[in-house]
Amino acid sequence: MSYALLVLVGCFVVLVFFLGFGVLGLGFGYLAWISTMVMSSDNIRGLVLALSSSVFIGSSFIFKKQGLKKAGVTGVRAGSGGHSYLHEPLWWFGMITMIGGEVANFSAYAFAPAILVTPLGALSIIVSAVLAHFVLDEKLHIFGILGCILCVVGSTTIVLHAPKEKDIESVKEVWSLATEPGFIAYSCVIIFLVIFLIIQLAPHYGNTHLVVYIGICSLMGSLTVMSVKALAIAIKLTFKGTNRFIYAQTWLFAAVVVICCLLQLNYLNKALDTFNTAVVSPVYYVMFTTFTIFASMIMFKVIC
Q1: Between residues 20 and 171, which one has the greater pLDDT?
Q2: pTM to 2 decimals?
């Protein structure tokens, strides 16, 4: 064994050693914080919903991947631009499972604080990685395991140190924030990057570089989240008796959500059909979360 390899192995062992203590410390700190909370019935409901959401979302990647593989046998693969998976029941089951998980996650925030719910969302990465290892026979190596751990640690750290979010009470308020110069500039940069990735990079490097497909999904995802927030407010106020769907801004936000979701769905299917599920899930989670944080910082003027 060469000296360079020995040094590399030694550095890796040290990294794992300190990371292990970091994970244990963060985990015990999080559990200690939870233990100080009054676990009311609402908090318990939120906890159950958050855990259910992670299981549903994590397993949905597996069902969709199996559906994509079956569809690729009889038709054009999604990675090659085909849409035969739309005729595959297993893929639709995966989609329904993912939607159910997102609904459960959305509902969890109505019962429990974000500091309890959000870190549990990272468990979907572990669920998809473990199921991919055993169900899809996509082997998860040591660096994949390390990456999953880092995802969970990173997301938990961010939530535990996140500043208080500004309270938004109307669709017009979201529209006012979305039309400020800073967020307009951000949106223009995002749209330019997505068009560049789709036209220039995806045809040549999409099947060999995961970040191309996942980059498209994540960039558009940051705009989707901001629009979903406006829609959620509109729906909430409408149920309370004040119809917010009479405003053009609400329908514009709805159009952004539909367009972005369709684009994300198309390229996420390409990524799942081409690359290892245990790699797609954590990379997508990290990139999506990163760009969403950037979008939130710009739109709501929050400095972490």
Answers
A1: 171
A2: 0.75
